[in-house]
Amino acid sequence: MPQPHKLELVSFKICPFVQRSVIALNYKGVAYTLTHLNPSEQPDWFKAISPLGKVPVLLVDGTPLFESAVILEYLDEVYPPQLHPADPLEKAQQRAWIEFGSELNMRQYRMLTAKDETAFTEARDSLKQGVQRLDGILAAETPFFTGKDFKLVDTVYAPLFMRLALLKKNFGLDLELSTRMQAWSDALLALDAVKTSVVEDFEAVFMNFLKMQGGYLLTLA
Ligand SMILES: N[C@@H](CCC(=O)N[C@@H](CS)C(=O)NCC(=O)O)C(=O)O
């Protein structure tokens, strides 16, 4: 059966908020096109459809949707399998942890772009604290957020873990994840939907982005 709508996702290659949408699309096996923009040269057509000048924007038969958490919910309502729980309270809780994931993305970004040691240490510690807070929330059953099944909330944390793994590999920056958290990260990063959620040369693109930022992080290499 043909897909009900034509989907076009507008992206920056490096953006974790776009990546969560891509993971959901890939996991659901939905067809879409991806347009990567250069963040410093936003075309007029993009400014016209993105009220905050931010990605992702998902064009659904040409109608723009913005805000990644909203895009995720839209995709989940239209394309199976359903990754949000049906129970309203559970769903509300997972929405809240999706918000929390967005906050951790911002803390990670602050850490990556911090210009001096004080700002870097503050951002790293707040990220670490946030990650530790999650530890008490994860289901006892492994590997995903709620246990054995991959949920919408998981799509939000995979981009964070992907970057943490690269930071560990390239800079020896280790947030010392707990065993449960590491199992979650390993399971997410092993999923095809996650592996294919970034450009093939993502590590090089990410490293180049960090060099361009000229942050304190580079002194750790
Ligand atoms: N709340 C937004 C955040 C999106 C966001 O911050 N995107 C960044 C790239 S990762 C962006 O487009 N920044 C451009 C800018 O701030 O000018 C969402 O969840 O979609």
What is the N-to-C succession of helices and strands? EHEHEEHHHHHHH
N-to-C span: 51 Å
The main β sheet shows up as: 4 strands, mixed
Counted by DSSP, the helix tally is: 9
Query: Portion of residues in helices?
Result: 55-70%
Name the structural class: alpha+beta
Query: Which regions contain 5 or more consecutive residues with pLDDT less than 50?
Result: none
- Quantity of strands, as a count: 4
- Overall shape: it is globular
Bound molecules: glutathione
Overall mean confidence score, pLDDT:
97
> Class of the largest domain in CATH?
Mainly Alpha
Query: Which topology of the largest domain does CATH recognise?
Result: Glutathione S-transferase Yfyf (Class Pi), Chain A, domain 2
Biggest sheet, spatial arrangement of strands: 2-1-3-4
What percentage of amino acids are in beta strands?
A: 5-15%
**C-alpha-based Rg, rounded:** 17 Å
CATH architecture of the largest domain: Up-down Bundle
Count of the separate structural domains: 2
Describe the structure in your own words.
- The protein is α+β, with helices and mostly antiparallel strands and 221 residues long.
- It folds into 2 domains: 7-78, Glutaredoxin; 88-220, Up-down Bundle (Glutathione S-transferase Yfyf (Class Pi), Chain A, domain 2).
- Helix content is 56%, strand content 8%.
- The protein has helices at 16-28, 44-49, 68-78, 88-113, 117-135, 152-171, 179-190, 192-195, 202-213; strands at residues 7-11, 33-36, 57-60, 63-66.
- The chain has a 4-stranded mixed sheet with strand order 2-1-3-4, with helices on one face.
- Strand 3 and strand 4 form a beta hairpin.
- The mean pLDDT is 97.
- Glutathione (GSH) is lined by residues 12, 15, 17, 53-56, 67-69, 102.
